[in-house]
Amino acid sequence: MKATVYKGNKTFSVIEKEIEAPEKGEVRIKVAYSGVCGTDVHIYHGMMDKRVAMPQTIGHEMSGIIDAVGEGVEGYAVGDKVVVRPLDDRLVKASDKGFNHICEDLKFIGIDSPGSMQQYWNVPAFVLHKLKAETDLKLAALIEPLSVATHDVRRSGLVAGETAVVLGGGPIGLLVAMVAKEVGANVIVSEVNEKRIAKAQSMGLHAVNPTKVDLVEYVKEQTDNRRADVVFEVAGVQPALDIMCEVAGIRGRILMVAIHGEKKPVDLFKFFWKELSLIGARVYEKEDYEKSIDLITKNELPFEDMITDVQPLSNIQQVFENIDNNPDGMKVLMDCQQ
Ligand SMILES: NC(=O)c1ccc[n+]([C@@H]2O[C@H](COP(=O)([O-])OP(=O)(O)OC[C@H]3O[C@@H](n4cnc5c(N)ncnc54)[C@H](O)[C@@H]3O)[C@@H](O)[C@H]2O)c1
Ligand SMILES: [Zn+2]
User: Fold this and answer.
1) How far is CA 212 from its chain centroid?
2) Where does the chain cross the membrane (predicted)?
């Protein structure tokens, strides 16, 4: 079988290796597609070299078909279409209060252990979610990032008729916007990259450029001065932190989706003044996956537009080099059988 490995120093190799039988409690998946995530790009840039045991197969946004079932696995059979929720919570403790998805000793599969950018992938059965026979496997590779979005929207408590502002129209921001719109909210995406604005608009989303319009005034006009009920910070930059407290209205809820690697200034006075709430949101829980599987299987949202390229596994080096040279693309999928 073919597998890709990250070797450090912005380098991937494609290797040939033996297909392994699944161990007790595991299944072997014939991987269909594996999406490239921002985290994979961070790994490629060497930013996670202390955490990734090189040479390592990375990747966690995938879809596939069960190819072999190990001893003791129940509820799954060869031929089942599945996705993986790449959270290894085996070290969960009572002090994690049942929040396994953010437990202190959580291991992320595809970073801390081998991932999906290979032809066959052995995983413990507890990470599996079964798809429907009719679920499209290409779209199903979006279920992992979509579950970030379904988790964020669920955590926000967003309801129909409310206004949500999404700061950042990258892959995660657009998925959040789609899910928020599906809830029945009025959604405004703020994005600085004109190509990504055009992409969002082509997907039927309402997107504006905060360097060209005064975002706060714009949102006030759209909401009869009420401003946003919910703000999703999905840009990860200081200007977004500056505007999130401005664009949120009275009792607004701000969802911190972006990963800020260092401490940054935030206008805490606004939290007092408008009784704002700041809500953290990290990865997903089982129910977020089930919601995403349902959305992808129904396929009533413009998911297909999110996939801007599909490349054979053997092109992995080129794929990552291209992502570096082109910040406009959305989701690139690796075809893991090519
Ligand atoms: N909470 C989680 O579990 C989780 C999961 C996945 C990703 N993330 C984080 O979510 C964030 C978004 O992920 P992504 O893959 O979409 O990243 P991305 O970098 O592709 O998207 C960020 C977008 O923000 C835009 N932007 C930059 N400055 C802006 C500004 N001032 N106003 C509005 N938009 C601006 C960029 O042009 C870009 O399109 C990242 O920080 C990522 O690490 C969090
Ligand atoms: Zn991801």
Assistant:
1) 28
2) none
Q: Residues with beta carbon < 5 A to ion ligand 2?
A: 37, 61
Residue of 223, 232, 170, 138 whose CA lies nearest to 37? 170
Provide the pLDDT confidence category of residue 254 given band limits of 50, 70 and 90: very high
Ligand 1 atom 43 nearest Cα: 259
Q: What pTM does this model have?
A: 0.98
> Based on C-alpha coordinates, what's the Rg of the chain?
20
Residue among 42, 129, 206, 260 flagged as catalytic? 42
- Confidence bin at 327 (pLDDT 50/70/90): confident
Question: Can 45 be counted among the known catalytic residues?
Answer: no
Q: Where are the alpha helices (DSSP H) in the chain?
A: 38-44, 137-140, 143-156, 171-183, 194-202, 215-222, 238-247, 268-273, 286-298, 316-325
Quick one: which of 285, 327, 334 has its CA closest to 313? Answer: 334
With 90 as the cut, is the pLDDT of residue 326 above it? no
Cα separation values, 289 from 11, 83, 148, 227, Å: 32, 9, 9, 31
First to last CA, the chain: 11
Handedness of CA 46, 52, 57, 62 (dihedral sign): negative
Domains contained in the chain, CATH given: 2-142+303-335 (3.90.180.10), 149-280 (3.40.50.720)
Do the Cβ atoms of 48 and 79 come closer than 8 Å?
Answer: no
Non-local (6+) Cβ contacts of 241 within 8 A are 233, 260, 264, 265, 266
Query: E-assigned strands of the chain?
Result: 2-6, 12-16, 26-35, 61-69, 81-84, 87-88, 107-108, 120-124, 128-130, 163-167, 186-190, 206-208, 228-233, 248-256, 277-280, 307-312, 331-335
